[in-house]
Specification:
By secondary structure, the chain is α/β, with parallel strands linked by helices.
């Protein structure tokens, strides 16, 4: 009798294992399809009159950063976009640091002076011209120039407020520009994507073995 019970338990375990495996395989395929969908969207020609923004929205700790890094490093996108930048939004928010990072990554001509005297001279000029506000204006103008034409891909990881998005204020007129935003807040996702539901990806899940999955895209 005991042996029969053991055989029954063993059969149940195999059924459970088989069911879980099929579920994981289905979710994995779903994840790959969603990633390819995002890559296709980033690579497609847009009928819009402004840049396209794709937002990935989900609770903290569910792997948005891992997902967006895998997309950003995709070989197809590396080939398609000659100008690329990945910025993690640190808190407290620092606009100057963000603009500086974007310019350095997007501008292959951007070079930092090695001469300490030259660095000091630049700082003195900044003070004479208005200090931090002048530096922001200079970085803003340079960034606008870099993004006004040609294909580019920018990732803004971990936006936490609409004010942050509006402060960064990337120029919109270049229809070849593509931006990926990650956030944990739905209103930021809708605002940054200009309320384009088809560009908002949400409901992120994590597979039990740590593999990141997207379970679905939510339509607002």
């Amino acid at each position: 009798m005991i042996a029969a019970t053991d055989r029954s338990n063993s059969t149940d375990e195999r059924i459970v294992t088989r069911t879980e495996t099929m579920e994981y395989e289905s979710q994995f395929i779903s994840r790959q399809n969603e990633i390819q969908d995002i890559i296709h969207k980033l690579n497609s020609n847009s009928n819009s009159r402004e840049h396209e923004v794709v937002t990935i929205c989900g609770k903290d700790g569910l792997g948005k950063t891992s997902l967006v890094k895998s997309i950003y490093q995709n070989e197809e996108l590396r080939t398609s976009f000659e100008r690329r930048a990945y910025v993690t939004i640190k808190h407290p928010f620092n606009l100057e640091d963000i603009l500086d990072s974007l310019v350095k990554q997007l501008d292959d001509k951007e070079e930092e002076p090695d001469d300490k005297e030259e660095v000091s001279a630049r700082k003195e000029k900044d003070k004479e011209r208005g200090g931090d506000r002048t530096k922001l204006r200079v970085k803003r103008r340079r960034l606008d120039d870099l993004l006004k034409e040609g294909k580019y891909l920018i990732v803004l990881d971990d936006l936490s407020s609409i004010k942050e998005w509006d402060s960064i204020n990337l120029p919109k007129t270049n229809t070849e520009g593509r931006i990926i935003v990650t956030t944990s807040t739905e209103n930021i996702a809708k605002h940054s994507s200009n309320k384009k539901d088809e560009n908002i990806y949400t409901n992120l899940n994590v597979w039990t073995n740590g593999t990141l999955l997207i379970s679905s895209r939510k339509r607002y």
